[in-house]
Design goal:
With about 625 residues, the protein is an alpha/beta fold. The chain contains 20 helices and 25 strands. The strands form four sheets. It has an eight-stranded antiparallel β-sheet with strand order 3-2-4-1-10-9-11-15, with helices on one face. The protein has a seven-stranded antiparallel β-sheet with strand order 5-6-7-8-12-13-14. It has a five-stranded parallel β-sheet with strand order 17-16-18-19-20, sandwiched between helices. The structure holds 6-O-phosphono-alpha-D-glucopyranose.
Length: about 625
């Protein structure tokens, strides 16, 4: 949510900023801007509403150049998307420019105090208080710029990642973090800041993950860091192992399509990492944590937001079924305010693609205050979630750029399957033979997904019949109920077709009223033999009786469904517990082609942002 990039070094900052901003655009894309310290001594600011392309065009017509600069892609919180509300924001004199991700919660109080002292504000944003506050603190010349920044940030409440530059300090870039992600990219004779690693992956291989309450001072020759009270901090430089190509589109028309196609590889990589030749699951540090906790565990609480929440719903079913532990799933935004009562020895499993989602992190902190141990399932190494968890399970999906999550979601499903197997084994609820059987079934999933991907043109042809409908209903039972919810979410996120996911058994308690010959009803009907199969078929009969248009995700050769549904997306069979890993791919493709046929901007859906770092 909002992307920040910054540069200080010998080269012209502008193309480097724009390159980083392109890679960060998925964080926010309602406006964009840069501030560049030019050789003529001016601090030039250029902003445009809308996509980054608008700013790039403006910079082509009227170029800027300078060796120090900051850039920002915005997802509006305070103040509508407009040029004046776009970042960077400057002080009264235009000497200080700042870009910000997060929310300064006490900005109204700070603003009225500064206005009383004569500061003139131009925007409706919370961010603008930062440059004015620094300007005020520097007024009598008693403190250094870094001391003024630290002092200003001691007054600011809320969350921030900040990049700050001064007109009369042409070779220093300041950065600070509290609650919103920010990294420093350490180059040779040049330094970067960015909201995430992929933004500067092709420029640096070494990074410093800033911690909350740290301020960094970047000069071409090196980085100095301090806490808000001025205590120096020794920078901890880490080498990045991600490859730059991981964040490229690789010939696909969109990142989302590329990421859908990457799923077999992602799952194979995770299985290679975590399943031994003997078929046993090993989760590294999470295994150790589980070993220490398993016997006395009273409860598991899974916390997440958005798509990750649906992965958590799936995880709950597996953990209860296999490990025999009472388990609940809650939304980060609800758990943190519901005054939860948790029994002693509750294990929290927090799931987040980015590891930066504000509500998930706040819930994790609350759980830790309640003395729960936390396992983090996350796709970003070095993320806040992984750093704040007692044990981290990295889903190895690689950078996910498409705003709607696909490969990170399947990786989360697999992570839960592995976690549930390990916990069940540790608690003696599963024997080694069953574990081998399950991991052997998992090993066949990537090929199963391939088979679905091979049918993408068939899915496109089915979408052609339905993409103009106003609504769609998605139905699933048990392990496929969360997948129905995820399929509906994917569809509405990217195609803007209203879609609702429902537990098929609940359909007659409401949504059945919607069914008529215009309503597509997407039904998850694999596997063919399980406890809920006959119930699912009965539900479909109810849809058929009301002339609903059934699109079934069904097993290859499932004659019953062929007879019942208008359209079938055939998928290979696996055991019921793992069918979501295959079925979800069919729904991702269906949503994808609906969106494409409706002419939507698939990688950057309206109003969304990939990483939601505000409440
Ligand atoms: C946003 C994204 C979703 C994501 C959710 C939670 O809404 O658009 O794709 O599922 O945030 O994000 P997280 O990074 O915690 O998984």
């Amino acid at each position: 949510m909002c992307g920040i990039v910054g540069y200080v070094g010998p080269r012209n900052a502008v193309p480097l900023l724009l390159e980083g901003m392109q890679r960060l655009e998925y964080r926010g894309y309602d406006s964009a801007g840069v501030a560049v310290r030019q050789a003529d001594g001016r601090l030039a600011v250029r902003k445009r509403v809308g996509r980054l392309a608008n700013l790039e065009e403006a910079l082509e017509t009227e170029p800027l150049a300078g060796q120090l600069g900051i850039g920002h892609t915005r997802w509006a919180t305070h103040g509508e998307p407009s040029e004046v509300n776009s970042h960077p924001h400057v002080d009264c004199a235009g000497n200080i420019a700042a870009v910000h991700n997060g929310i300064i919660e006490n900005y109204l109080a700070l603003r009225s105090d500064l206005e009383a002292k004569g500061h003139v504000f131009r925007s409706q944003t919370d961010t603008e208080v930062i440059p004015h506050l620094i300007e005020e603190l520097l007024k009598d010349g008693a403190v250094s710029r870094s001391a003024a920044i630290r002092q200003a940030l001691r007054q600011a409440q809320g969350a921030y990642a900040l990049g700050i530059v001064f007109r009369d300090e042409p070779a220093v870039l300041y950065a600070a973090r509290c609650g919103s992600p920010l990294i420093v990219g350490v180059g040779e004779g040049e330094q970067f800041i960015a909201s995430d690693v992929p933004a500067i992956l092709n420029r640096v291989k070494q990074v410093i993950y800033l911690n909350d309450g740290e301020v960094a001072e970047l000069r071409p020759a090196g980085v100095a860091m301090a806490k808000l009270d001025g205590t120096p901090v020794q920078p901890e430089i880490k080498t990045v192992t991600l490859r730059a190509e991981a964040a490229e589109r690789a010939g696909f028309e969109t990142f989302m399509l590329k990421e859908i196609h990457e799923q077999p590889r992602v799952l194979r990589t995770m299985l290679e990492t975590h399943v031994g030749k003997d078929g046993a699951v090993n989760l590294g540090e999470v295994s150790d944590l589980l070993a220490a906790e398993a016997a006395g565990l009273q409860r598991i609480v899974i916390l997440a937001c958005g798509t990750a929440y649906y992965a958590g719903m799936y995880g709950r079913l597996l953990l209860e079924a296999w490990a025999g532990i009472p388990c609940e799933t809650d939304l980060g935004s609800e758990f943190r305010y519901r005054h939860p009562r948790l029994p002693e020895r509750t294990l929290v499993v927090a799931v987040s693609q980015s590891g930066e989602t504000a509500d998930t992190l706040a819930s994790v902190r609350l759980a830790r205050r309640m003395e729960c141990k936390v396992v983090g399932i996350c796709n970003v190494a070095g993320s806040t979630l992984l750093r704040e968890s007692d044990g981290g399970l990295l889903t190895q999906a690689g950078p996910e750029i498409g705003v709607a999550s696909t490969k990170a979601f399947s990786a989360q499903l697999l992570a839960f399957a592995l976690l549930a197997i390990r916990l069940a084994r540790l608690r003696g609820a599963m024997d080694a033979a069953r574990e081998r059987e399950l991991t052997a079934a998992l090993a066949r999933i990537p090929d199963g997904i391939h088979r679905v991907l091979e049918r993408q043109d068939d899915v496109r042809r089915i979408s052609q019949k339905y993409y103009e409908c106003y609504n769609a209903l998605y139905l699933g039972r048990r392990f496929n109920y969360p997948i129905a919810l995820e399929g509906a979410l994917k569809n509405k996120e990217i195609s803007y077709q209203h879609a609702e996911g429902y537990a098929a058994g609940e359909m007659k308690h409401g949504p059945i009223a919607l069914i008529n010959e215009f309503l597509p009803v997407v039904c998850l009907c694999t596997p063919t033999a399980d406890e809920v199969r006959d119930k699912m078929v009965s539900n479909l009969k109810e849809v058929e009786a009301r002339k609903g248009r059934i699109i079934a995700v069904a097993a290859e050769g499932d004659a019953t469904l062929q007879g019942l549904a208008q359209d079938v997306i055939p998928v290979p069979e696996t055991i019921e517990e793992f069918s979501p890993l295959i079925n979800v791919v069919a729904l991702q493709l269906f949503a994808y082609y609906n969106a494409k046929l409706r002419g939507a901007d698939i990688d950057k859906p309206r109003n969304l942002a990939k990483s939601v770092t505000v409440e």
